[in-house]
Design brief:
The complex is a heterodimer. Chain A is α/β, with parallel strands linked by helices. Chain A has 8 helices and 12 strands. In chain A, the strands form 3 sheets. In chain A, strands 4-1-5-12-6 form a 5-stranded mixed sheet. A 5-stranded mixed sheet of chain A has the order 9-8-10-7-11. In chain A, strands 2-3 form a two-stranded antiparallel sheet. Chain B contains 14 helices and 12 strands. Classes of the chains: A alpha/beta, B alpha+beta.
Chain lengths: 232, 361
């Protein structure tokens, strides 16, 4: 057995994660061909690298199939109920910053706040006969946020990609999505509500609270934490 | 006997008690069309109910309660007056507390009767209370209709009243709106700017989406109009807040509400209904002298109730959900009846919790 560390398998998130571990004396690398999802760990013993889609890392942590995992706080909170009981946040890695926001068409000059959105939703429903559609893939987070804020007469419609385009395509009236710079929103003629930050997310190292460990694994985990200078 | 069999047997006893009180047993489907439920309860219901789907019927919801299917059944082919009872599983999604059941039995008693609402309210309360037997419970009661009447009676524009009435079940937004209409909070800078703009629709953004520039212009007109309206007076806001804070035994609450009605005549009718209900409950042997009344009760958890509301809670067991709840839902029958309506009041018991409490007794 060994400690399994789940890391996003692609792109910037993977590279930045490798850099973060590298700067702390743990070298992570991909092995084999570019297309093979296999990796190596140097600098500590008993740790195995598992390359996964960032979206699957919350589930794998909660199932205890990996001991550690790097993923966004947004994905952990969206996918895991009572997430604090399933995983422990060990360190924010300082990259992958993204805000989960609510955006509406720029041409809605009367809508700047949640209060406006709620009022516009009531009018919209009265006029069009159905609840205002908000496109998102973060159903749970957005629903809980809007419920807490007391917004009514809206519905969430699923959008797993190109969410910013849904308004122009008339499949939604507003969106709730992750943004880092806001460029895509502007390009799609959308603006962010000024008081509706659903969640601020960044890449974070999580530890599974349920993954089984042998004595050997525990020693390897302690050694890894010491190398990374993370307290328990 | 397995625990489930014990609970089912208890449910059958409750059902027999409700039948003895005059209710006809009815069955409803487990899978309900999600659209109807979503239109009624809004997106929030997705957080509480399981939704599934197939390619033919679209989204279906696992019955989160019996009220909607029973009302639909009654509106479709019920004779008046009617009393129904049902027993079966309901399903509730649990995302924040793994200890709470996501599937449990409910046994209900519903009365559809136009004649004497006070008597029907009292009947449902008394029948449900009797069904709980000797289990130590604390009862809470309230009346959403009093708050609704207070809102309707505010000296302000219809549109403001409508906005407040829409959020009676969302206390946070209700308070934010009341504060704004009363001039207690400053207008957001973005709105000040919008109202000051001479040509707000010259914004440089392309017109996208279903909500048109006419819709936007109409709302700006209303915001302008509203900004020129006088604020709701401090006295009226204080009266509403005093009403929301009423929390006493029923006779004292009635007295308090009657005092408030002197300055808030709009709640007089509602206070008479409360008085009649207390008399009807007393006539049924309910100990009204010691029954609690909270004007805010039922505002957060019982969206479709619009009049009398009640709940029974196990003494000293704040960890348990209520063992029984109920209330009046006249407006729901209006929505589901598409023009037709029938005053309705009902209550449900959770035999699982009842058995739990009886075991401990």
């Amino acid at each position: 057995m060994s400690i399994k560390l789940g890391v996003p398998s692609k792109g910037r998130l993977m590279e930045k994660t490798f850099d973060w571990f590298g700067a702390r004396g743990v070298s992570l690398s991909r092995t084999g061909s570019d297309r093979e999802y296999a990796g190596a760990v140097d600098g500590v013993d008993g740790v195995e690298l598992v390359l996964l889609s960032a979206g699957e890392i919350p589930r794998e942590l909660a199932a205890g199939r990996i001991h550690l995992g790097v993923t966004g706080t947004d994905l952990i909170r969206e996918k895991l109920g009572q997430w604090e009981q399933q995983v422990q946040e060990l360190a924010e890695l300082g990259f992958g910053q993204a805000d989960l926001i609510i955006a509406v068409p720029g041409c809605w000059v009367d809508v700047e706040t949640l209060d406006d959105l709620d009022a516009a939703a009531a009018d919209f429903r009265a006029r069009h006969g159905f609840r205002m559609r908000i496109a998102t893939k973060y159903h749970r987070l957005v629903r809980e946020y809007l419920m807490d804020a007391g917004v009514a007469d809206y519905q969430l419609v699923d959008s797993q990609g190109a969410t910013e385009g849904t308004v122009k395509n008339l499949t939604a009236e507003a969106i709730a999505d992750i943004t880092s710079t806001g460029d895509t929103l502007r390009a799609n003629h959308l603006k962010i509500l000024s008081d509706a930050m659903v969640l601020q997310s960044q890449a974070t190292l999580f530890r599974s609270r349920v993954a089984e460990m042998s004595d050997e694994d525990r020693a390897a985990m302690a050694a890894l934490m010491a190398t990374l200078q993370l307290g328990d | 006997m397995s625990q489930k069999a014990v609970i089912k047997a208890r449910a059958a006893e409750l059902s027999a008690q409700f039948q003895a009180a005059g209710a006809v047993p009815v069955e409803t489907p487990v899978l309900l069309p999600a659209e109807v439920m979503l239109d009624l309860y809004g997106e929030d219901v997705r957080g509480r109910a399981y939704v599934t789907s197939d390619a033919l019927r679209g989204e279906q919801m696992l019955r989160p309660d019996f009220t909607v299917p029973v009302v639909q059944m009654h509106m479709a082919h019920g004779a008046e007056p009617a009393r129904y009872t049902y027993a079966g599983e309901v399903f509730r999604r649990q995302e924040d507390d793994a200890a709470r059941a996501n599937e449990y039995l409910q046994v209900g008693y519903e009365v559809f009767d136009r004649e004497n609402p006070a008597a029907s309210d009292a009947e449902v309360f008394a029948v449900v209370q009797a069904a709980l037997g000797d289990v130590p419970v604390r009862a809470a009661t309230g009346d959403i209709g009093i708050l609704a009447a207070a809102v309707a009676g505010l000296e302000t524009t219809e549109r403001r009243k409508k906005a407040l009435a829409r959020h009676i079940w969302r206390p946070r937004r209700f308070k934010a709106l009341l504060d704004r209409f009363a001039g207690r909070t400053e207008m957001p800078a973005s709105r000040v700017k919008l109202l000051a703009a001479e040509y707000p629709l010259e914004h440089g953004f392309p017109d996208i989406g279903l909500r048109t520039q006419d819709d936007v212009a109409a709302r700006i007109d209303w915001l302008r109009e509203d900004s020129e309206m006088p604020a709701i007076s401090a006295m009226q806001v204080e009266l509403i807040e005093a009403l929301l804070n009423v929390r006493e035994t029923l006779p004292n609450a009635l007295e308090h509400i009657r005092d408030l009605a002197v300055d808030m005549p709009a709640i007089s009718e509602a206070s008479f209904r409360l008085r009649d209900r207390i008399a009807a409950m007393d006539a049924r042997g309910v100990d009204v002298e010691n029954l609690d009344f909270e004007a805010s009760y039922g505002r957060t958890s019982m969206e479709y109730y619009d009049g009398f509301v009640f709940g029974f809670y196990a003494e000293g067991r704040a960890d348990l959900p209520p063992v029984a709840t109920g209330g009046r839902y006249d407006a729901l029958t209006q929505v589901l009846g598409q023009g037709r309506e029938i005053p309705a009041v009902g209550g449900v018991v959770r035999p699982g919790i009842l058995v739990d409490l009886e075991d401990k007794a």
